[in-house]
Structure formats: structure tokens, C-alpha cells
UniProtKB/TrEMBL annotation:
Name of the protein this chain belongs to: nucleoside diphosphate phosphatase
The protein's annotated pathway: Protein modification; protein glycosylation
Major site of localization recorded for this protein: endoplasmic reticulum
Pfam families: GDA1_CD39
A GO-annotated cellular component: extracellular space
InterPro entries: GDA1_CD39_NTPase
Top enzyme category: hydrolase
Entry function: Hydrolyzes nucleoside diphosphates with a preference for GDP, IDP and UDP compared to ADP and CDP. In the lumen of the endoplasmic reticulum, hydrolyzes UDP that acts as an end-product feedback inhibitor of the UDP-Glc:glycoprotein glucosyltransferases. UMP can be transported back by an UDP-sugar antiporter to the cytosol where it is consumed to regenerate UDP-glucose. Therefore, it positively regulates protein reglucosylation by clearing UDP from the ER lumen and by promoting the regeneration of UDP-glucose.
Gene: ENTPD5
Native source organism of the sequence: Chinchilla lanigera (Long-tailed chinchilla)
């Protein structure tokens, strides 16, 4: 089949992190990033929290140019995104600072090409052209490029996922950029949460000031969801299940994070679970029905390369209460609930942000601050108006109800828990990509 045209959305940002605080923070971070040579930092037998994220035996030649770059691909379940980060060493002998980011995305995600791996890899090729346009030719050979796939590929059969990744690796090898070992792989969900936490707290300056409290992070993708925060109470550490706590060192401090990724509880995977469609892979001729959908609705939806027929309850109840009962079955009893989160503050992004924007709870550009109860209020409003439904997303009632159930009955947040919804901090995209790029540069010994 012919490859569909791929809509590109370019966001070019050069935040002038020129304030004394921002420059100092960047310099402090890069003291850690560039102070080590890869042969002494990443030993293959070293047990570290980022083992399997970037462990490379390649060390490029030292770079003396004042500007250098890092290319990070985020291959999610619903789209593939490229982040091109620019770092500048403004004065000889001084540490470089983060200067800006170019961000673009294509849809659908790689998992939609489960049986057409070459076509899937072409979407990555399209985005590589963006990197070529953004980075001077003289820097291509020393600019590392890496792709990390997330939950969309974790859910695929291993053989099919690897076929996709091999095709992407071939694209990288043919590119003019530096291709490290392990340049294309599936990232563990817990690392995704840790790297997102590092990104947000680095950009807000909270990793560098001992007087400030760090913020937790909540990420809601299409196939998985992550929660990460720094516990303040000994009780939390004592009551947390094994495997949910991870220690690492940064800025001469040791952090013991609570982090976990729940595969299958992302927004779109939760839709399938709510519809009862997880086991069936879209039985031909069968329509999955839900009280969360307009009664008159008859439609089809493709997710992960599978087509599903779905619609509203032609008989029986519709609206918030019966819908909430459906989504509650998806999350109830499946998530650990640390008591400490009820009094914390969290950054929330991805589908938390998107659904809040779509329902006018926050501004698209500026984001906003909400409480958990605001999602429930909006869910009741949307679900109570299904008969007059006009939104472009027929799943809006289901999605808002699911987010409410995930936050309250899943993670155990209080109605009053504060959520800071944002796409960018200091004009840099939130999420795990910047944190991953820091470790990529460190592993390669770039910027000496």
C-alpha cells in the first residue's frame, strides 16, 4: 500500500536561558554530563538504573566546535516524534548550556505498521530530513541519533516489533549522523518515568536548589501510564512494593525515586479494555458497545493496526454513572496507592494535557493548573450531554471518566490534589526525551 502523506508540525524554540539561574543550572548539569569519558562511566557489568537505556562502547572524537547537537526519536503508540536539541559552549573553557529544541511529529506511530515494517521506517526517514535541515552539514557526522520506542511496541509480538526496529536501524545506518550502539530499541517503562522526572525537575530548577521540593510526574500515553515522584516519608519507602523504588546519583545527590509504568493502562489501551475488546482483536462483524458513547453512534476505530467496530448502548443506560462503572473495572485493584501522593503536586502531560485542552479546562499554549476533581466535574458535564454530542472525539466521555478513575481509584489521589498541566517548561517539551539525551551525550563522552 502507498504510504499516506504525513502531517508535520514543526516547533522551533530557542529559549534564551540567559538568566543567571538558568545558565547556572545548565552549567551544573553539564559538569556531570561532560566530566566523564564513556570508558569510565558506562561499564557493561555496572548495575545502574539506566542499564539498558544507553550503554555504548562508542566514543566519538572530541568535539571542539562551540555548538553541538543531539537527536532523540520518541516512537510512541500514536505517533513518532523527533527532538533536535542544540547545546552551545559560549566561551572556551566554560561549560555548554541547553540553547533550544526543534520538535516535529508524524502520525500514526510505528506500531500501526506492524505488518509493513519498511513503510513504518519511512516515517522515521521523513523526520530525519528535519534533522538534516536543522543541523549544519559540518556537524552531521558527530551528532548522535537514537530512537527509543515506548509502549506501542512493547505491546506487539517481539518478532514483529524487532522487524520494525531493524528497518529503522537500517535507515539510521544510511544517514549521515553518528549511530551509537543500541541506537534503536524499546525502552523500559520505568526508565521512561525516571527520564521524564529528570527533564521536568531539571527545567524547573528543582534539582539544583536544596530548598525546593521536587515535583512528581504523571504521563498518560496511548498504551501505558507512568507515575514518578521523590518520596518524603519513610513510611512510603517501607510500604512500597519491591521494584517500584530506584536510586541514582545526580548533582552530587542521591535520589531514591518511586516510579512505575503500567502497561495496558494508557488511554487507548484502556478504551479497548472498557469496550471488552482486548481479547478479541476486533471480531469481524462484532460491535463493541459502551454506556460512555452516544446512544446513536456507530463507528470504527483502528488501533495498533486492528480495526474495531464500536457504538453506543442502543438500549440501557448511558451517561457518567454507568460509564464510570465500566472504566472503574479497568483500574480497580490494579495499581499501587502510596498515601503520600494525596498531598503532593504533580506535573501531568500527554493525554492528561490533551483532554484538558479539548474541553477548555486549560489553554493550549499556556497549560494550566487543575485539581483532580476538575476532571470528574468535566466528565460529568460531557457524559451528561451525550445526546447533543458534537465533539470530534466520540471517546471524550470515556476518556475523561477513565482519567478520573485512574487518578482517584487507581493511583489514590485526593480530589484536591494539584496537577500542573504543561507541554513545555522554559520552551522545552516535557517528557523523557531531554533526560534521555543528557544520558546519551554522557555515554558518548560528547562535548569534551
Amino acid at each position: 500500500p502507498t504510504l499516506p502523506s504525513l502531517p508535520l508540525q514543526r516547533n522551533l524554540t530557542f529559549p534564551h536561558l540567559g538568566t543567571r539561574m538558568a545558565t547556572t543550572q545548565s552549567a551544573v548539569f553539564f559538569a556531570l554530563v561532560i566530566s566523564s569519558v564513556c570508558s569510565t562511566v558506562f561499564h557493561r557489568d555496572q548495575q545502574t538504573w539506566f542499564e539498558g537505556v544507553f550503554i555504548s562502547s562508542m566514543c566519538p572524537v572530541n568535539i571542539s566546535a562551540s555548538t553541538f547537537y543531539g537527536i532523540m526519536f520518541d516512537a510512541g503508540s500514536t505517533g513518532t516524534r523527533i527532538h533536535v536539541y542544540t547545546f552551545v559552549q559560549k566561551t572556551q573553557g566554560q561549560l555548554p548550556v541547553l540553547e533550544g529544541e526543534i520538535f516535529e511529529s508524524v502520525k500514526p506511530g510505528l506500531s500501526a505498521f506492524v505488518d509493513q515494517p519498511k513503510e513504518g521506517a519511512q516515517t522515521v526517514q521523513e523526520l530525519l530530513e528535519v534533522a538534516k535541515d536543522s543541523i549544519p552539514r559540518s556537524h552531521w557526522k558527530r551528532t548522535p541519533v537514537v530512537l527509543k520506542a515506548t509502549a506501542g511496541l512493547r505491546l506487539l509480538p517481539e518478532r514483529k516489533a524487532q522487524a520494525l526496529l531493524l528497518e529503522v536501524e537500517e535507515i539510521f545506518k544510511k544517514s549521515p549522523f553518528l549511530v551509537p550502539d543500541d541506537s534503536v530499541s524499546i525502552m523500559d517503562g520505568s526508565n521512561e518515568g525516571i527520564l521524564a522526572w529528570i527533564t521536568v525537575n531539571f527545567l524547573t530548577g528543582q534539582l539544583h536548589s536544596h530548598g525546593q521540593k521536587t515535583m512528581g510526574t504523571l504521563d498518560l500515553g496511548g498504551a501505558s501510564t507512568q507515575i514518578t515522584f521523590l518520596p518524603q516519608f519513610e513510611k512510603t519507602l517501607e510500604q512500597t512494593p519491591r521494584g517500584y523504588l530506584t536510586s541514582f546519583e545526580m548533582f552530587n545527590s542521591t535520589y531514591q525515586l518511586y516510579t512505575h509504568s503500567y502497561l495496558g493502562l494508557g488511554l487507548k489501551a484502556a478504551r479497548l479494555a472498557t469496550l471488552g475488546a482486548l481479547e478479541t482483536e476486533g471480531i469481524e462483524g462484532h460491535t463493541f458497545r459502551s454506556a460512555c458513547l452516544p446512544r446513536w453512534l456507530e463507528a470504527e476505530w483502528i488501533f495498533g493496526g486492528v480495526k474495531y467496530q464500536y457504538g453506543g448502548n442502543q438500549e440501557g443506560e448511558v451517561g457518567f454513572e454507568p460509564c464510570y462503572a465500566e472504566v472503574l473495572r479497568v483500574v480497580q485493584g490494579k495499581l499501587h496507592q502510596p498515601e503520600e501522593v494525596q498531598g503532593g503536586s504533580f506535573y501531568a502531560f500527554s493525554y492528561y494535557y490533551d483532554r484538558a485542552v479539548e474541553t477548555d479546562m486549560i489553554d493550549y499554549e499556556k497549560g494550566g493548573v487543575l485539581k483532580v476533581e476538575d476532571f470528574e466535574r468535566k466528565a460529568r458535564e460531557v457524559c451528561g450531554n451525550l445526546e447533543n454530542f458534537t465533539s470530534g472525539s466520540p471517546f471524550l466521555c470515556m476518556d475523561l471518566s477513565y482519567i478520573t478513575a485512574l487518578l482517584k481509584d487507581g493511583f489514590g489521589f485526593a480530589d484536591s490534589t494539584i496537577l500542573q498541566l504543561t507541554k513545555k517548561v522554559n520552551n522545552i517539551e516535557t517528557g523523557w526525551a531531554l533526560g534521555a539525551t543528557f544520558h546519551l551525550l554522557q555515554s558518548l563522552g560528547v562535548s569534551h
